[in-house]
Amino acid sequence: MSPAPTLADVVAVLEDLYPPSTAEGWDAVGLVAGDPAALVRTVAFAVDPVAAVVDEALAWGADLLVTHHPLFLKPVHGVPATTFKGAVVHRLLTNGCGLYVAHTNADAAPRGVADALADLVGITDRRPLVVREDGAGDDPGDTGRGIGRVGRLAEPTTLRAFAERVAAVLPPVAQGVRVAGDLDATVSTAAVVGGSGDSLFDAVRAAAVDVYVTADLRHHPASELRERAEFEADPARRAAGTPFLVDVAHFASEWPWLAYAAQDLVARLGEGTVTTRVSTLPTDPWTARVASPGR
């Protein structure tokens, strides 16, 4: 096996793949805990830095845990082990495991959260839904970087069949997949945004896609989008009243990226340098769903 890289080496690769400067201003990304001089032989990847994930990473002998969601999104003044987040930090450091976060910078990156989700649901000829043009560390001409992805499906299908595909390829969760629209309508173009995506409804409408896949859709924004779509629908279109909505669990929409991150880290460091493991623990907070009678 090749010599193990240091934590600083691994962080340098991660920050080349997911530049911190491309994260949203409110975000908290980068190295949370760990000694840059420490050697890294095993890297674990997960969506959430919760206690069960930490236990799993330590059971694997991980020297670094890379998560999508931050442990500390708001400033803190201490990390005592008497708090649930402080306990996570102490457990990691006591066992020689660092913690690194790639959040909105991984959302926007090529082969990031958006591309991984788009690949799974079958979107081709795609481009970012919202291209970054703020000069925050990336080239405005780089059409591979930006929030979300939009493109066409390999072949037209029904909204029902498309939603069933989405449900089949994402991790199973209690919520399942919710759909808004005519299940028998034909869809041929789609947009995706991993995580919470109802703030991007204007961009989705401007992209003129048939269906939008995202997570955490709230009642009022979703209702208004559908009402407007139906009001403005062109009767001549086969898929009138678009965009339709496919609402998935937040965790499920972001989990596919983990495999890409693991593969790309090894590709940059070189085969035989580190071992990677991707967590399959379901960290979606919802544990059950009770269907309405008759549904």
UniProtKB/TrEMBL annotation:
<feature type="binding site">
    <location>
        <position position="254"/>
    </location>
    <ligand>
        <name>a divalent metal cation</name>
    </ligand>
</feature>
<feature type="binding site">
    <location>
        <position position="250"/>
    </location>
    <ligand>
        <name>a divalent metal cation</name>
    </ligand>
</feature>
<keyword id="KW-0479">Metal-binding</keyword>
<dbReference type="GO" id="GO:0046872">
    <property type="term" value="F:metal ion binding"/>
</dbReference>
<dbReference type="GO" id="GO:0005737">
    <property type="term" value="C:cytoplasm"/>
</dbReference>
<feature type="binding site">
    <location>
        <position position="68"/>
    </location>
    <ligand>
        <name>a divalent metal cation</name>
    </ligand>
</feature>
<dbReference type="Pfam" id="PF01784">
    <property type="entry name" value="DUF34_NIF3"/>
</dbReference>
<dbReference type="InterPro" id="IPR036069">
    <property type="entry name" value="DUF34/NIF3_sf"/>
</dbReference>
<comment type="similarity">
    <text>Belongs to the GTP cyclohydrolase I type 2/NIF3 family.</text>
</comment>
<feature type="binding site">
    <location>
        <position position="107"/>
    </location>
    <ligand>
        <name>a divalent metal cation</name>
    </ligand>
</feature>
<feature type="binding site">
    <location>
        <position position="69"/>
    </location>
    <ligand>
        <name>a divalent metal cation</name>
    </ligand>
</feature>
<protein>
    <recommendedName>
        <fullName>GTP cyclohydrolase 1 type 2 homolog</fullName>
    </recommendedName>
</protein>
<dbReference type="InterPro" id="IPR002678">
    <property type="entry name" value="DUF34/NIF3"/>
</dbReference>
<comment type="subunit">
    <text>Homohexamer.</text>
</comment>
